Amino acid sequence: MARKKIAYLGPPGTFTEEATIKYDEKAQLLPFMSISAVVSAVETGIAEEGVVPIENSLEGSVTETLDLLIHDSGLLIRRELVLPIEHHLLTKPDVEAPQVNIIFSHPQALGQCRRFLERCFPKAQAVAALSTAAAVEQMMSSATPAAAIGTQRAATLHGARILARDIQDRSPNVTRFAVLAAQDHPPTNRDKTSVCFSFNDDHPGLLCAVLEEFARQSINLAKIESRPSKEGLGRYVFLVDLEGHREERMVGQVLDRARGKTSMFKILGSYPRHEERA
Amino acid sequence: MARKKIAYLGPPGTFTEEATIKYDEKAQLLPFMSISAVVSAVETGIAEEGVVPIENSLEGSVTETLDLLIHDSGLLIRRELVLPIEHHLLTKPDVEAPQVNIIFSHPQALGQCRRFLERCFPKAQAVAALSTAAAVEQMMSSATPAAAIGTQRAATLHGARILARDIQDRSPNVTRFAVLAAQDHPPTNRDKTSVCFSFNDDHPGLLCAVLEEFARQSINLAKIESRPSKEGLGRYVFLVDLEGHREERMVGQVLDRARGKTSMFKILGSYPRHEERA
Is A14 a catalytic residue? Predict the structure, then answer.
C-alpha cells in the first residue's frame, strides 16, 4: 500500500516537521517552502494532507494561513496539532559551553531565549538565521566554536549535541498547526468546528445574535477572534472555534441559524479536539 | 523646556522607531532592546512614554506586549499608532540591480517579499539578519554587491539608496503600536477603550452577557480576541476594543455593568481612535 503523502512547511528540522512526524511518523513527508505552496500541493493532489502553522509559530505568518482558509482555498481543517515550543541549545559534540562565542538562530527564537542567553552567554554574539533549522546547519559548519537554538529534531538530523534543554524564557509556549485536506474529519464525539463569518454592517448587536445561538444550546466557544476584512476599512471577519462536530444534528442546526444572521459564513472544518494534558 | 522622552523598541531604523518619529518628531527617543525593557523604562521614569508593537509586527512578539499589559504592568495605552509596513529594497548608492547577489533581511521580511525576490532576483542568496535595521548595516558593509530589505528611515540613517519601493507581496500590511504611559488620554470625542476580562467558568452565555451590555447601548466593538489565560488550561482572557472613552458617562456605566459580570476586568486605556484614510 502506498504511504500517505503529507506536504508541510519546510525545511526539515523545523517545528512544523516535528509536529508532522508526531502526527504520522509513517507518512512520506514533502517539505514546501511557503504556506501557499503547501496549500497548492494538497489542492493539486501532490499530497493528500498539508501541515501549516495556524497560531504562534516562528516559521510562518499565521495571518497567511488564516487568509488562505478564509478567502482563497476550499481545503478544510482535518486535524489540529499542538506542539510545545521547546528551544534547545545545540553544539557540535566536542564543543563545551565556555568556548561558545557565537549563537545562531531565527531572530524570534533568539528573542524568546533572551534571558537565558544574557545569563549564561553574556559575551556571545547573536547571529540571525533564516530558520531554526538553518541555524543548526550554520552552527555545524562554523569554524569558530558556536551554538544554535534549535529543535530536538534538528539535533538528530545534523548530529548535534543538546547542551541545554528548554531554554526559552517563558513556558509553556505552544504552536498550533492545522492539517488541511479536501475533507475534514468524521465525528469522534470530542470534536471542534472552526467557522468564519462577517456582516454587511457593523451594528454591535449582530455578533451577539450569532453568539447567542451557540449559547442557547450550551455550545462552548473555544476561541473567538476578529480580523480586519480584506473588503473594506472597518469591516471584520470573525473566527470562532466551537465545541462539537458540524455533522451532529444539533450543531448543524445551530450553524444553519447562525449562517442566516450573517452576510458571509464559511465552515473551515470539524476535527477532533486536541486533548490538553492537565 | 525639557524635551519629552520616549522609550521605544529599538534599534534605530526599525518600524517602531519610524512610528515613534511620526508620532512625535520633537521628542528625545530612547531605544531599548526588549518590550519589557521599554515598559520598565516608563514605569521607573526613565521615559514618559513607551512605544511597543501591539499587532502584526516583525520586531516584537505581540504576545509579549499583551501579556505585560494584562498581567504585569499598571501602564495604560495612551495612543495607538498605525503604520503601513512598506518594505523597500536598499543598496549602496553605486550598486545596480543586476549586480546584486546577496539580499539581507529579517526572515519575516524576506518571507513577505518572497514573490518579488523570486521574480526579480531569482539567483540572489537570502541571508538572515536580526532586524531590518541590522540588515541594512550588513548590506552597507558587505564586500560583495548586496541589497537589503529595510525601511525608508534605515535608508536615511545609513546613506543607502532605495532601489525598489513597496516590494511586499501583499498590501496593505499594517503594524499597530501602542504608546504606553502612566495615564491614558483625556477624552477627544473620537476615542477607543481597550479592556480585558475573564470568567471563573466557561459557560458559553457569559461572554454573550458582557457583549450584550455593549450592544444595548449601541457601543461598537472594534476588536475582540480570546487568548489562553495563564491561570489554567481551558480558561480564556478576552481582549475587547470598544468605541468611546471610559470617562464618558454612558461608557463608564456600561463598563461597570460589564465588570460585574466577570471575575477579572482590567481597563487597558482610553485613547483617540486612529483615523483610517479611506
Answer: no
Q: Does B130 touch chain A (CB under 8 A)?
A: yes
| B28 lies in the same domain as B137 | no
ipTM for the complex? 0.79
Mutate to test the interface with B, among A82, A221, A275 (most CBs of B within 10 A): A221
Q: How many domains does chain B have?
A: 3
Same domain, B10 and B69: yes
Give the Cβ contact number of residue A82 at 10 Å.
14
Whole-number Å distance between alpha carbons of A29 and A47: 9
Which of A132, A175, A193, A262 is an active site residue? A175
A61 closest CB neighbour out of B63, B108, B276: B108
Q: DSSP of A257-270, one letter per residue? A: HHHHT-SEEEEEEE
Tell me, yes or no, whether B9 and B107 share the same domain. no
Q: Say if A36 is an interface residue toward chain B (CB within 8 Å).
A: no
Beta strands in chain B (DSSP E): 5-9, 28-32, 49-55, 76-84, 88-91, 102-105, 125-128, 146-150, 161-164, 174-181, 191-198, 221-228, 236-243, 264-272
Domain of residue A54, CATH code? 3.40.190.10
Cell numbers given for A224:
473567538
Q: Taking the model in full, what pTM does it have?
A: 0.84
Do B221 and A205 lie within an 8 Å CB cutoff?
no
Q: Which sequence positions of B are flagged as catalytic?
A: 175, 177
Instruction: Output the tens digit of pLDDT for each of chain A's 278 residues.
Output: 689 999 999 888 888 999 999 999 999 999 998 888 999 999 999 999 999 998 876 666 677 888 889 988 999 999 999 988 889 999 999 999 999 999 999 988 898 898 899 999 999 999 999 888 899 999 999 999 999 999 888 999 999 999 999 998 876 567 889 999 999 999 999 999 999 999 887 677 888 889 999 989 989 888 898 887 765 545 788 999 999 999 999 999 999 999 999 999 999 999 999 876 43
CB-based contact, A56 to chain B, within 8 Å: yes
Domain assignment of residue A277, yes or no? no
> Are A138 and A259 contained in the same domain?
no
For residue A186, is it within any domain?
Answer: no
The CA distance from A83 to the nearest CA of chain B, in Å, is 15
